[in-house]
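Re: the request from the purification team.
They wanted to know what the chain is likely to look like in 3D before they choose a buffer screen. I agreed to run a prediction and write the result into the notebook, where they can find it.
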Amino acid sequence: MIDKHYKYSPILALSTAEMSALEQLPNKDKDLLLPIFPLKGWLGSKTLKNTISRIEKSIGNRLWIADIDYDFVFNNKKYLANPDSQREVFKEVHKLLEPKNGYENWVKYIENLNNAIPTLQTHELQEIGKQIASLYSLGRGIVVRIKIKKDSTEKINTIIKSLMISQYNKIFIILDFEDIKRSDVLQSQQYGLLVSKLSSLLPSAIFSTSASSFPSSFSGSYRGELPIYERQLHTAVCEQCGDIRVIYSDRGSARANKTNGGGGLPPPRIDYPLKNDWRYVRKEFEDSDNVSEGEKHALYKQAANEIVNSDYWDSSLRVWGVQMIEKTVELKDKYCITSPNRSTAVRINIHLYQQIHYTSDLSLLNTEEDWED
């Protein structure tokens, strides 16, 4: 299931930005990545079949971890009020979340996805032992995602005891902190102790701490840098865990809990990820209620120009996101950065690459690879 060549296991939302960013990574770097996808409908698609097709387009014929986006169903008021009025995909996902017979619908669905490693569903725990046995029988191991800030101690204890009783050895436990701040990093000692304790109970398990500290707003800020607290948390936990295998995970530089944007067109902003922080340049429209296409493109060009001429810019890094920023400086290509969604894809692409190669000297790596828009 998970061997030592995997460097990074990000939890990625099924959005155009995340999927484009992943798709444009060099193939040799995708080989080092084990992404986690909470399944939901792909854009306006009617069925889950299109979701799987988009995942396979982004990652190729490689292993990936499958979970279920619980909020896609249970935070959708329109679907809950009138299921028959919504797309079929909502019913498909809802069916996967039915806990009957140890989530048998989920087990049967995963069985037919040959490259998918299953995540244990823990919304209902009555037949958790049966679900563990059923998922393990697929021969791919089991991923267990524990939401540290939401799951009760009683719930976590029940999950761990059930895994101990099973005595299975191909288990990947993700401690998901979701959105974090610096204060969470300051508590890293207790989280390191938690990983050590869980490892003593499940000695063959592999672990991960996953989180996101990417801000929800840049209002009033022109340029700056933001520390990657999830990387700091991971490093601090690893320092206390000795030889325990702890894989780095985050949200790929996106928020864990997505927020709806305010009204109007967001000001142009381009982000440039480094290994330990994100740099950004943000521009303001003269009148956000009256923006011309020419003004928008010009401001993205100005932001790109500032980044390319900064002291942190690395012109030797030839991944897709970097080349997109260079294209934006020239404004000669229709595929340059002209929207927040494309800017987000560029940031995520560079961030994924930086975190895959966190322990490497990037100047020694060959990043050249053909890519297509």
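For the purification team: The longest strand covers residues 171-179.
Please add any questions underneath this entry.
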